[in-house]
Specification:
The chain is of the alpha/beta class and 289 residues long. The chain contains ten helices and twelve strands. Helix 2 crosses helix 3.
C-alpha cells in the first residue's frame, strides 16, 4: 500500500480540527482524547510530507493543504451521512432509537409527560433526549428530531409548527405589585427579543439578577428576587407565582417539531412526530397562556 494513501478516518480528523480550531474541540466531536488526535495528526502530516495546520496559542489554523483536505472531508462526510440517512429512511420497524433534542424548559415544563406516554405506547422504541439551547446538526444525525421554539426553522429541515408559546410577566404571588426589581436573561442565554423588550420598556435598569437559563429565571422569581418574563406553560404551573397582565404579544414564539427530510419516512420517527404533534395540539391552550 502506498504510504501516502489517505483514509476516510484521516479526513475526518483533519475536518474536525479545521472546524473546531483546536484538538480538544475536535476530540469532543470525534470521541477521542487530545493526545490521540495529536498523535494522529502528526502521523498524517508525516505520511503526506506536508504541514496541515499552523499551531499557535489561539489554536490550530489550517494551511492551504489543510483547507483542501478539510473541504474534501466535508464533501465525503456529506455523501456518507446522506447515504446513511437514506438507508435508515427505509426502516419500517416500530423499534430502535429516536434521538430528540429540545430545551431544558420545554422538557421540564411540557414534554416529559408526553415522552413518558410515548414510551408506554411504543415500548420497543428507545428515546435519547439531548437537552441544549443550541439546534443540533440534524444533517449529521446529532439528533433525529428537534422540538424547538424558533421564528425561522432551518430551511434544510422539515416539520410543522405545533403551537405558539406565550410569555408574560410573573412575580411571587404575595409580593406587592409595585416591586421594582427584575430578573432577566444573561447574555449567554442568547435571548435577544426579551433583552430588547426589557430595554424598550425601561425595566432593564431595574434588573438586579441575570441568569443563563429560563429555569434559573423561574427559580429567581419564585424566590422573590424580582419580577420576570417567563413562558406561560412553565410559570402558570408554579403555585407560588402570579401572572401580572396579559401575555406579551411581541414575545410570542412559534414552537416547531423538526426532522431531516431523509428521516421522515422512518417508521419510529414518523410515529414519534405524529404522537408528539397530537399531544402538543391538545396543549395549545397551555402553550398560549
Amino acid at each position: 500500500m502506498n504510504e501516502q494513501t489517505l483514509h476516510w478516518e484521516d479526513l475526518r480528523v483533519v475536518l474536525a480540527i479545521a472546524e473546531a480550531g483546536s484538538l480538544s474541540g475536535a476530540g469532543r466531536r470525534l470521541g477521542a482524547s487530545h493526545a490521540t488526535l495529536f498523535r494522529r495528526l502528526n502521523a498524517i502530516e508525516r505520511r503526506l510530507g506536508v504541514r496541515l495546520f499552523e499551531r499557535s496559542r489561539r489554536g490550530y489554523a489550517p494551511t492551504a493543504a489543510g483547507e483542501e483536505l478539510a473541504a474534501t472531508g466535508e464533501r465525503i462526510e456529506a455523501e456518507v451521512l446522506g447515504a446513511e440517512r437514506r438507508v435508515v429512511g427505509r426502516d419500517l420497524r416500530l423499534s430502535g432509537t429516536v434521538r430528540v433534542t429540545t430545551t431544558d424548559t420545554l422538557l421540564m415544563g411540557l414534554l416529559s409527560p408526553i415522552l413518558a406516554d410515548f414510551r408506554r405506547a411504543h415500548p420497543q422504541i428507545v428515546l435519547e433526549v439531548a437537552v441544549s439551547n443550541q439546534l443540533f446538526n440534524l444533517s449529521r444525525r446529532d439528533a433525529d428530531v428537534a422540538i424547538r421554539p424558533t421564528a425561522s426553522p432551518p430551511e434544510y429541515l422539515v416539520g410543522r409548527q405545533v403551537g405558539i408559546i406565550a410569555q408574560a410577566v410573573y412575580a411571587r404571588r404575595h409580593d406587592p405589585p409595585g416591586a421594582e426589581t427584575w430578573v432577566g436573561p444573561d447574555r449567554h442565554l442568547g435571548y435577544a427579543p426579551l433583552e430588547a423588550w426589557m430595554a424598550r420598556t425601561g425595566v432593564a435598569a431595574q434588573c438586579c439578577y441575570r441568569v443563563d437559563t429560563l429555569l434559573g429565571m423561574l427559580a429567581a422569581v419564585r424566590d422573590g428576587m424580582g419580577r420576570g418574563v417567563l413562558p406561560c406553560y412553565l410559570a402558570d404551573a408554579e403555585p407560588t407565582l402570579a401572572r401580572q397582565g396579559e401575555p406579551i404579544a411581541e414575545l410570542a414564539t412559534d414552537l416547531w417539531l423538526l426532522t431531516h427530510p431523509d428521516l421522515r419516512r422512518v417508521a419510529r420517527i414518523r410515529a414519534f412526530l405524529a404522537f408528539v404533534a397530537e399531544a402538543l395540539g391538545e396543549r395549545r391552550a397551555q402553550l398560549g397562556g
